[in-house]
Amino acid sequence: MSVLDRQNHWQNVYETKGERDVSWFQEIPQISLDLVHATGVRADASIVDVGGGASHLVDALVTEGFCSITVLDLSEKALAKSRNRLGLRGRKVTWIVADAMAWRPDRHYDLWHDRAAFHFLIDASERAAYAASVRHVVRPGGHVIIGTFAPDGPERCSGLPVARHDAGSIGELLGSSFALIETRREDHRTPAVASSDSNSAGSNGRRAKM
Ligand SMILES: C[S@@+](CC[C@H](N)C(=O)[O-])C[C@H]1O[C@@H](n2cnc3c(N)ncnc32)[C@H](O)[C@@H]1O
User: Is 154 in the pocket of ligand 1 (CB under 6 A)?
Assistant: First the structure.
């Protein structure tokens, strides 16, 4: 899938669906927050939420006093939703429209967070490009949190095929300069069908230190 096709897909999703109508919606992204806290990063740490979409993670981090937050996504419409929701509270947040595989900022970040963007990279070359971005962006001593569908999770998300992962496959990709600190499992209930087990999505939260 070309980057343009990918971007069009996501722009269309965020244009046609309300933020609560998507299967990955979370009012409070608790596992992400727990993993951020577990890194021990300070309130002035530079944090980037990669493929952040319209996630409420940025809201929670702003509320907690984190003051150097970047949200990056392929979809400008997704970022606009969060920007509008936050209003003045989001005035210090940096919003970047970019492809995570090609992003090469001229500064380092303390923490890279990605919930449910990496698993859309189904070709090995795409995953290698993503890993190159992580290595470029995260400072030595920094942290990476990557949440994906688990090996027994769904095979598709948002109508697109996904690659499912565990700590081993992500660790292999990131390479030996990263050490695995922690891995967690989450059984995510999609909001529209919260009572149905068949729509729960096993996902892995993984935290690594560089
Ligand atoms: C399933 S949504 C998850 C959004 C958000 N992380 C959350 O938990 O609500 C996947 C997001 O990844 C973004 N995305 C997909 N591929 C990307 C890429 N190559 N670079 C940047 N963002 C990407 C999409 O635009 C979308 O917002």
Answer: no
